[in-house]
Design goal:
Blueprint (H helix, E strand, L loop, with lengths): L11 H11 L3 H8 L6 H18 L3 H14 L3 H20 L6 H14 L7 H14 L4 H18 L2 H17 L3 H18 L5 H9 L6 H15 L23
């Protein structure tokens, strides 16, 4: 993920932020970016970290809202305003899907605003496609629309060489395939998602990927994968919080959170 601490030549700041983020230390990672309020890009990145913390832990909503307002105030171009709108949509989605507060209308409106503001070739458009897919799948209950959005995000992630986003699109396309009974296709997608996360060292996202793959594998491989996921879950202090009830054998769709 170029510029985010996972490739050779990244700035020391981005490398430090990535190492903390990948281990679920979002507050510490955001603190590294706090001394740069005049940078719209870093302000938006700080917001994204705190929104991600909400999604993985179900906590920190006020901090994320404060950071988001700062990012919205700092935005000076349409792409920057579009990026902030994309984060507002994602925060509203997280609040809704985790049952904190129903903000589904706000999520859709904010992502629509982001689509209107971002240039067609803006770096943030692939992520926007992915987040619109999440809303379509988990809030609007429209798997067909979700698949189309995920495919656009997948193509964008490939074009931009964004492996972390690519791991997410693989995972959610696989979840839709599993939902349709396409076991081989689902297994391939979940394997690719897991492979990328392990290569990146994205520890906080590895346990969900292991659990998802386990739902497509026979025993004893499924049990081994769940045991490894449980070990990582304990290592990270019970994060992501929503994974706790997915570490048992019954097949279930991949979580909407990661």
């Amino acid at each position: 993920m170029s510029g985010s601490g996972t490739t050779a030549g990244d700035e020391p700041l981005q490398t430090a932020v990535w190492r903390l983020r990948s281990r679920g230390c979002w507050t510490d990672a955001a603190a590294l970016l706090a001394p740069h309020p005049s940078s719209p890009a870093l302000t938006l990145q700080r917001t994204a970290l705190l929104v991600e913390r909400c999604l993985f832990t179900g906590t920190g909503w006020e901090d994320a809202e404060d950071a988001l307002r700062t990012a919205e105030a700092a935005a000076g171009s349409d792409d920057e305003r579009g990026g902030a709108a994309c984060e507002r949509g994602h925060l509203a989605y997280a609040s809704t899907v985790l049952g904190v507060r129903d903000r589904a209308d706000e999520a859709s409106a904010a992502l629509g605003r982001a689509a209107a503001l971002l240039a067609p070739d803006a770096p943030g458009r692939a992520l926007l496609h992915f987040r619109r897919g999440l809303v379509a799948e988990h809030l609007a209950e429209s798997p067909q629309s979700a698949r189309a959005a995920y495919l656009r995000a997948h193509a964008g992630a490939v074009a931009q060489n964004d492996p972390l986003l690519l791991s997410c699109t693989w995972r959610h396309l696989a979840a839709l395939a599993l939902r349709d009974g396409e076991l081989a296709e689902a297994r391939e997608g979940f394997r690719e998602s897991l492979r990328i996360r392990e290569e990146l060292g994205y520890l906080v996202g590895t346990a969900p990927a292991l659990t998802a793959l386990a739902d497509t594998e026979p025993e004893p491989e499924a049990g081994r994968l769940r045991a490894e996921a449980a070990r990582l879950f304990r290592l990270l202090g019970g994060v992501p919080t929503w994974l706790a009830d997915q570490l048992s054998p019954p097949t279930r769709p991949a979580s909407p959170a990661a």
